[in-house]
Write a structure and sequence with these properties.
CATH architecture of the largest domain: 3-Layer(aba) Sandwich
Helix content: 25-40%
CATH superfamily of the largest domain: Vaccinia Virus protein VP39
Order of helices and strands: HEHEHEEHHHHHHHEHEHE
Number of helices: 12
CATH topology of the largest domain: Rossmann fold
Oligomer: single chain
Strand content: 5-15%
Radius of gyration: 20 Å
Strand order of the largest sheet: 3-2-1-4-5-7-6
Distance between the termini: 25 Å
CATH class of the largest domain: Alpha Beta
Length: 326
């Protein structure tokens, strides 16, 4: 028996923060056959999805994670109203192993950078205004983007720009970065963006115009925060936490994340993960059912209301009734 579906009208939940694909997320989480009403929000961010789960799914309880120290203040606001139903963990979601219990109705991962992080100039995620090249999602630990650029090997920088940023001019940009070390050009967003612009590729005619430094900034951010490594590690952990018939919902914002999620879901469903996967059916385990044959994407109206939702893709998988581990 399905739990009641609880989608409602879309609205801005917290000032300055518009949760992406909000109704769609509540729909899939609320329609799970597993009716324990326990949820994991592994990317609390502005708290929009967590608040809506608590408000729109009766008797629900949420354990939320976020490694950003500034998210603690936002979580405290929700805890005032939902102290008995919300638990907040100021941690990277790769540390979700600290949660001993299992049997969660749903797990949500909303990947990428939150609106708060983008809008806080001093965080260095954007080059719209000049700021220190920081880019850390957890400002209390790890090396900054400037430190990465000044000290990482050429190979590491090439990987960040080529693989994570998907920038076709990765070789020229990487060499320019190494040559600029010690000049101060790598310490500020404005000077670094200007450096990249000199060497980056230009959009093809007719394609959406983006700043030439956009893809390089993305690649450096992913490298500094180990985003893909953490995603690879956390997906199996998240699936293991689900109750039978529980759902895992993942929102991604660029092709690399989406490809990782898509292949992981295919693995769980016992399907070939990619075109070179030649394993026989006997070599595969069917542990789950893919709910979204194609990813759910924002409506035209949502994109109009919130342009940052443009590239979002939601994929959902349901754990088989008999359960199973990866």
């Amino acid at each position: 028996m399905y739990c009641k579906s609880l989608a409602g009208g879309r609205r801005q939940v917290l000032k300055g923060h518009v949760p992406v694909l909000l109704d769609e997320v509540i729909e899939v989480l609320g329609s799970s056959r597993a009716c324990a009403r326990k949820y994991l929000d592994l990317t609390f961010g502005g708290g929009g999805h967590t608040r809506e789960i608590l408000e729109r799914i009766p008797d629900s309880k949420v354990v939320a994670f976020d490694q950003d120290p500034s998210a603690i203040t936002r979580a405290d606001l929700l805890l005032k109203n939902f102290s008995k139903r919300l638990r907040f963990e100021a941690r990277n979601f790769e540390e979700m192993g600290i949660i001993q219990d299992t049997g969660y109705t749903g797990v949500l991962m909303d990947l990428g950078v939150s609106s708060y992080q983008l809008d806080e100039v001093d965080r260095g995620f954007s080059f719209r205004e000049d700021a220190p090249m920081d880019m850390r999602m957890n400002t209390s630990q790890g090396r900054t983007a400037a430190e990465f650029l000044e000290n990482a090997s050429l190979e590491a920088i090439e990987t960040a720009i080529r693989e994570f940023g998907e920038e076709s001019r990765w070789r020229a940009i990487s060499r320019a970065i190494v040559e600029a070390r010690g000049t101060g050009a790598l310490s500020r967003t404005a000077s670094f963006a200007a450096l990249v612009k000199q060497h980056a590729s230009r959009p093809a005619p007719g394609r959406r115009r983006i700043h030439p430094a956009t893809q390089t900034f993305q690649g450096i951010r992913i490298a500094v925060n180990r985003e893909l490594e953490c995603l690879d590690k956390t997906l199996p952990l998240a699936f293991e936490k689900l109750a039978p018939d529980g759902v895992l919902a993942v929102i991604s914002f660029h092709s690399i994340e989406d490809r990782i999620v898509k292949r992981f879901f295919k693995k769980l469903a016992g399907r070939p993960e990619h075109k070179n996967d030649n394993r026989t059916q006997d070599q595969r385990k069917v542990l789950a059912e893919i709910i979204t044959r194609k990813p759910i994407i924002p409506s035209d109206q949502e994109i109009l209301d919130n342009p940052r939702a443009r590239s979002a893709k939601l994929r959902v998988i349901r754990k088989h009734p008999e359960g199973g581990l990866v």
